[in-house]
Design a protein that fits this description.
Immunoglobulin-like; 6% helix; 5 helices; 31 strands; binds copper (II) ion; single chain; globular
Length: 462
């Protein structure tokens, strides 16, 4: 039996678990990829990130050469304090321009990390310092905002991802609900690293959580009765994911790092690239469990991790019962919004197949042909209507702002603050926004390929 066949059988026997890991080990050199991490902090509110080529082992013997922060995929979880001036020094050891985007923070365009907004690039083999007051509190993330230049192992496809946690300025916890521990998880998709004959044995393995595919990382050790707050980030370059804590109830406390008005239980979460969920899980079902993607293909592709109570033997289980609701943003809303801002903006996204491939147009033009930013007046309130008039679903992200969801696919809601809204194919969403961030703000689909196919636009607050 060849290894690939064995892997398939093993995965069938125990859904989602790649029990064949130990047998796969000899195919490639088992380089120790656990290099010493650079020091991330060099003083109070002083952070240093080094961008350089590194090797990362996502499954036993499966090593990718990629670009990462501080020689680690993902980069370190960075803690910042809301409102306290923070210095981030970024050293670019690569041969190309880089830029670090602080996703979900309401900070000036010069430091937000998008060249289109006017953030200066970090030139090859040089250093740049970002200085800003982090906020608002909660789970954010950081990632490169460079473009691929035709290389699908660059930009968001690379290992340049990491989580930021902004501690609330009053020193209190963001959530009143009691919990014992916080854990941070970020996914990544590696599809384009597997291309080529060399990796035939691993052709399913394209996802990682915290840099490791399911079954490769050490299990997360938990105790009965423990309440854990999971901060979960979709850090993929393009793929949507679902996530379920099998054997356990999941209570959603927050989305995109902000508390939701009505926490509720769900069977699984669904997140597009860039979206986050804060999930409360009570450890009340001793065993060895897989927490991962209910989609079998993605779970077999590595999307998950194992949670283990004390004194457990045998293989981890994957059992999903109906503990709660199907994923729907409106679950977390108290009531539809009654008031309406006086200003309204329509954003329509269309998709075209051309001789040169797919092209997206935002209000009739791809990004390169757009002349003026969409204007916003400082201090005014706006309702933005997104018409996703095409056959693909998209996570729509607006830089430097949180907006309130008021309608997603005909379901009215209020009080849910996000920086990214997922819209299904041929669908509609509306959000309310207060123009409080002067200057340019980039709007785009968070899928790297769509962004590069014209799906971007600028807003400007004057
Ligand atoms: Cu898209």
């Amino acid at each position: 039996m060849n290894r690939k066949k064995f892997l398939e059988n093993a995965a069938l026997a125990v859904p989602g678990v790649l029990t064949a890991n130990s047998l796969l080990g000899n195919s490639f050199s088992s380089t120790n990829t656990k290099k010493k991490l650079s020091h991330t902090y060099f003083g109070k509110n002083k952070i240093r990130l080094t961008i350089s080529e590194t090797e990362t082992e996502i499954a036993k013997g499966l090593i990718f050469k990629t670009i990462a922060y501080n020689n680690s995929v993902p980069g370190p979880v960075i803690r910042m304090k809301e409102g306290e001036e923070t210095i981030v020094e970024v050293i670019n050891n690569t041969d190309h321009q880089e830029v670090v985007h602080w996703h979900g923070q309401e900070i000036p365009a010069e430091v937000d990390g998008a060249l289109e907004e006017g953030t200066p690039p970090i030139e090859p083999h040089s250093k740049r310092t970002y200085k800003f007051k982090p906020g608002p509190a909660g789970v954010k993330w950081y990632h490169t905002h460079a473009m691929t230049q035709g290389d699908k192992q660059k930009a968001m496809y690379s290992g340049q991802i990491g989580i930021v946690y902004i501690e609330p300025k009053d020193g209190k916890r963001q959530y009143k609900t009691a919990y014992d521990r916080e854990l941070f998880f970020i996914t990544h998709d590696w599809k384009y690293f597997l291309q080529g004959a060399l990796f035939k044995d691993f052709d399913r393995l394209v996802y990682t959580v915290n840099g490791k595919s399911l079954g490769f990382d050490s299990p997360i050790k938990v105790k009965e009765g423990e309440k854990i707050l999971l901060h979960f980030v979709n850090g993929n370059a393009r793929d949507d994911i679902r996530f379920s804590c099998s054997g356990h109830k999941m209570k959603i406390l927050g989305l995109d790092g902000r508390p939701v008005p009505k926490p509720d239980y769900v069977n699984d979460i669904k997140l597009g690239s860039g979206e986050r969920a804060d999930i409360l899980v009570e450890m009340n079902n001793p065993g060895k469990w897989i927490f991962g993607d209910p989609d079998e293909e993605r779970r077999k592709g590595g999307l998950g991790f194992v949670v283990e109570y004390p004194d457990q033997k045998g293989d981890p289980k994957w059992e999903v019962d109906s503990f709660g609701n199907r994923w729907d943003y409106s679950l977390f809303s108290i009531e539809p919004k009654k008031t309406k801002p006086k200003n309204e903006i329509t954003v329509e996204i269309k998709r075209y197949e051309t001789e040169n491939g797919t092209l997206y147009k935002v209000n009739g033009k791809p990004f390169e042909e757009q002349e003026d930013p969409i204007p916003l007046k400082y201090g005014e309130d706006y309702r933005i209507h997104f018409y996703n008039s095409n056959i693909k679903s998209h996570p729509l992200h607006l830089h430097r702002h949180y907006f309130e969801l008021v309608n997603v696919e005909g379901k009215e809601m209020s009080g849910i603050m996000k920086d990214t809204v997922f819209v299904n194919k041929n669908s509609y969403a509306a959000v309310d926004l207060k123009a409080t961030q002067k200057g340019l703000a980039l709007f785009h689909c968070h899928k790297q390929n769509h962004m590069e196919e014209g799906f971007m636009a600028l807003f400007e607050t004057i």
